[in-house]
Design brief:
α15 runs antiparallel to α17 and α17 runs antiparallel to α20. Helices cover about 45% and strands about 15% of the residues. It comes from Ulvibacter litoralis.
Length: about 900
Amino acid sequence: MKNFAQIKRTSFSIKWINTYFSFLSLKLENMAKKVTPLMKQYNTIKAKYPDALLLFRVGDFYETFGEDAVRAAGILNITLTARNNGGDNVELAGFPHHSLNTYLPKLVMAGCRVAICDQLEDPKQTKTIVKRGVTELVTPGVALNDDILQSKSNNFLAAVHFGSASKKTIGVSFLDVSTGEFLTAEGSAEYIDKLLQNFNPSEVLFSKQKRKLFTETFGDNFHVFHLEDWVFQEDYAAETLQKHFQTKNLKGFGVAHLQEGIIASGAALHYLGETQHNKLQHITRVSRIAEDAYVWMDRFTIRNLELYHSSHQNAVTLLDVIDKTTSPMGGRLLKRWMALPLKSVEKINRRHEVVSYLLEHSDVLQTIQQHIKRIGDLERLISKVATGKINPREVIQLKNSLEAVIPVKAKALLAENESVKAIGEQLHDCELLRNKIKETLFEEAPVNILKGNSVAEGFNETLDELRAISTGGKEYLDQMVAREIERTGITSLKIASNNVFGYYIEVRNTHKDKVPEEWIRKQTLVNAERYITEELKEYEGKILGAEEKIAALEREIFEKLVIWMLQFISSVQQNAALIAELDCLCSFASHAKVANYVRPVFDDTFDLDIKEGRHPVIEKQLPPDSPYISNDVFLDRENQQIVMITGPNMSGKSAILRQTALIVLLAQMGSFVPAEAVRMGVVDKIFTRVGASDNISMGESTFMVEMNETASILNNISERSLVLLDEIGRGTSTYDGISIAWAISEYLHEHPSHAKTLFATHYHEINEMTETFSRIKNYNVSVKELKDDVLFLRKLIPGGSQHSFGIHVAKMAGMPQAVLNRANKILKRLEKSHSSEELTEEMKNISKEEMQLSFFKLDDPLLEELRDEILDIDIDTLTPVEALMKLNEIKRMLLRNTTVKIKK
């Protein structure tokens, strides 16, 4: 009985489950009925790309639905409507398919990932719903559309991989699918942050699990996309790269040792596949960014110097001033050179020699620049060949650009400079490619291959015959009109065509009675009627057949041409790189000529000796009748390591600091510099702490930002560093500020690296440091005091300044007179009651005591012995090994003394 009851319960359960599933099936069926076949297809495709805005091709329009439609309508400012979907209204917004190049850039630049879903078959050839699929996924970092790209800027996709917590190494890669450039590096968070700032990627990829870590490390100013964690596996990344480059390992690219960099590179390449970018033959190598080959500049320095970006509206950057390149490739390379100044004196001098040669031979400079102007974007044109997205007009542009390379090559080969001659020798003439394009395509080929008239006459015999049939139609129709007028007597008869009826004969109503019986009436108008004839329909079929065959044949010929062109990718890319290099050097020469720049001289010393230096940006902003006041700056490690610059507010202290950094930067880029003369040893790191800014989003005040930046400098200085500090300590109280400024200066002076430093300050108490520290020298930016005013002379002269003239600056700013009067009274009262002399004397005493080690109790014989031992050490010549030995000796002395005391 128990078994029977159990069986009964089981049977009931099965019956209930069957009933439930039947009900569920019916419900799902009813739900399915509410969704139209089109929307069902849309929903299936959209489910595969949930993070993308889906452009769904319907007839002659790209449509968006639901949330995508709301978002697209807002960005594109197009009408948002609704369509009935089985009783439910779904938001709808769309635009004509031929306007894709107008609307797509707006969506991508707004940060959207856009999936383009096209019709994959001719609607006329199917009786069911048209087959559709995503043909391309365009994201901010993966774009080939000219309206999205900027000609003189790379469009980098970056991938970041965080290594193990113990190694604290981060890998990064930068890939520009529009040019084929692929770079990788790895290092500390600070180094990767600097690279991200320099390369300014349009999109950054990283693992989903690292969202918080990425934001904490690099901020939230990037367009980001998260990939699954399994993509960032070493084996998968290496396999992805080796498969793409068709190699067994990555040793040939010099990146095999970059474990984290390889993983980041593999993730970037994987993402291209995910976004339907599978034709990537133009990505021919991955290159290492060699950290030790370039000048170190942290992100604070890059921001402070305003090299190519500025937080101020309408500000002029260094790039705006010096960029005289005439090709897109040259413009992009110049940015790279600015981001990565050289440390190799040999390479720097090689660039300087070319610039000197071009300046001395103005005819060569002028000729080369004229021809480079005619060269289009070779990198991006050949990339379009590789990806199959090039059109006939762009192929002609590629051919014309390669023809413009020929006279550049000829002129370079005749050059007396070896570097210029080497460029000429390496340039490819690409004669076979140029001739093939010339014989295949018309010079005035259209943008769209479907418009016809792309393939040149005489290239294909069949095509020429079909064209003869098509173009001969006008003569045939004229003959038919003349014949029918004579036969019928209808003098106003004419033959025309439209998309509805095709070809037809139009007769005015006044001649209706003369129409022959065999003519077939097709349309009645107010004043006329339209007819067709058997002869006309037969001829129409012949013409239309020829036009369809022409279109298909031209498309076939063009596709074969593009595939054939793939073998020239590396040759064209090499030409692009060489032309870019030559363009940058020509830019340096032409700017040096106009702006009166000179060649800097490099030697083996640590000195920086600038005679009559000028700020390259500020001098361009001044009116013609206001010459820039130039200044000398000299720094070395032995006598004048730190120059302390005091002077009034607005006198130009910050400008002197910035111009010094920019002169060094330009010199090591390979450019001439704005000065009368410059002699210098190579600089390996440039640090600046100039200007003030809050980081409110991260909860950091101006002072906290200032301290963060200064700490980064003090923790990374080297013997060839250039340090520029402006108004350190002003974000806190006066005594705190003076103490911090003094301590930082003392630290820099006593640090074994003896880093060259310019320190601008409004704390005049700091001037007293020269009495204690031998390598600190005082300078001030001079002013001329008038009766009730002050004149800024902006000239740097020896000696310290004792006045800030802050109230004078307030007066110049238009401060009310009542405020100025009250400020003067308060200033006089404070000067009487709070003398800064006591503070300065105390700071000097503290430093002297610490330097003389007077904190020892000298009545202790051991301490006297230790003092003498330490004071006899020559720190400047002490090697690390000697320092350890000396430290060990002192330790033994202390242990010996302790043992003696214990025995006693």
